Amino acid sequence: MQAGPTVWCPRVSRLLFALLLTALALTGGDAHAADVEGSLRLTGRWLLDSNAPRDFRAGQGQTPAPDLAMSLLAAGDGRYTGERLQLVGRYELGGRKYLRYTTEDVLIQAAAVEASTALGTQLGLGVEGRGKDRRGGSRDYSDLGADAFLEYVPDVRLALRVRAGAHRFVYRPDSRANFGNPELGFLGRYRFNRRHSLSVFGEYGSRRYGVEARPPPEREGALLGRRKDGALAAGASYTYRGPLALGLTYTFQEISSNSFGETVLRHRLSGSAGLRLPWNLTLLAQGALGLSRYPDGIFLSPEIILVEEDEGQNSLSLKLARPMNEHLDVELSYGLYGTNLPRNDLSYFRQVVGVGLTWRL
């Protein structure tokens, strides 16, 4: 693997440990009458990747050679529910090894924990933390966050949550992209019945960077102070649970910066579907369409590289799964990803085909 030791980021460990201590403090005398549940999943795949380095090309430029890769993903989650306290945790560990493009080998760890306690019959108070640490390739970063939240649940149909916390992002290949900020957010969900539900969400963060803001060309040499961004995101999602499982989400994101070339507006529409087929087969599909606008023109900053790592524009993925027994599934997957930056005459195209096994407990 490339770019640093493949160990869990110390900041993540300290964050999650502090949140677990908070959860234990909230537990108090709630140890009796508790309900504990959890699950474990392990997936291994062989992959054929048409663009492992995720290279952009100009016009009809040469594309990278395809490469074979082996990927492994282990995921576990658990839930503790007492009379007053609920504690939820999730951890994932995944890696990918390429035969040709070894610089794209990667190890990713992600964890989240949430602890909440009831305040009467309708209010809840809690804390949550999340962390992701990626090592390898040009997209080598740690992403950390912690929040306190207040939740209002008057009945089974309606749930409202407001949160406030802090966010820290560290991008190792280029420290210009490092930032920290306070965040505010909300989430509302209304369940019309057991099949239909609608959610709305939004968040805002005032990001602070450790570099000077870049002036526009007509003011070259001007001193604008440290770079500051306002990051706003809002959207809505609809889900249907019946013979066919459906989900549809629209998200708008605006990053307004005092640094030239870093302001961006994004619209993203994503959807998912799950369907049971004959012969005990399950088909899962996910797709997304994205539209980005750069008022200053496109400046290829580290953030744009990271967006494309997340396949941030247009994508379609399909997975066909069939159980071999109670704990083992065989899977066939296909992913198609594409992005076009017309003002820079750059395009990005990638296909990934995989076959693998998933073991569940």
List the defining traits of the structure above.
361 residues, mainly beta, Porin, 16-stranded antiparallel barrel, 2 helices, 7% helix, globular, disordered N terminus
How is the secondary structure organized here?
Layout: H1 10-27, E1 35-49, E2 57-58, E3 67-81, E4 85-98, E5 106-119, E6 123-135, E7 141-152, E8 158-171, E9 179-191, E10 196-212, E11 226-241, E12 244-257, E13 264-277, E14 281-293, H2 302-309, E15 314-323, E16 328-341, E17 346-360
Antiparallel strand pairs: 1-3, 1-17, 2-17, 3-4, 4-5, 5-6, 6-7, 7-8, 8-9, 9-10, 10-11, 11-12, 12-13, 13-14, 14-15, 15-16, 16-17
The largest sheet has its strands arranged as: 1-3-4-5-6-7-8-9-10-11-12-13-14-15-16-17
Largest sheet: 16 strands, antiparallel, barrel
- Listing every helix as H and every strand as E from the N terminus to the C terminus, the arrangement reads HEEEEEEEEEEEEEEHEEE
What would CATH call the architecture?
Beta Barrel
Task: Describe the protein in words.
The chain is mainly beta. It contains 2 helices and 17 strands. 7% of the residues lie in helices and 62% in strands. It has helices at residues 10-27, 302-309, and strands at residues 35-49, 57-58, 67-81, 85-98, 106-119, 123-135, 141-152, 158-171, 179-191, 196-212, 226-241, 244-257, 264-277, 281-293, 314-323, 328-341, 346-360. Residues 1-9 and 304-312 have low confidence and may be disordered. The protein starts with 9 loop residues before the first helix and ends with a strand. It is globular, with a radius of gyration of 22 Å. Strands 1-3-4-5-6-7-8-9-10-11-12-13-14-15-16-17 form a 16-stranded antiparallel β-barrel. It has one domain: Porin (Beta Barrel), CATH 2.40.160.
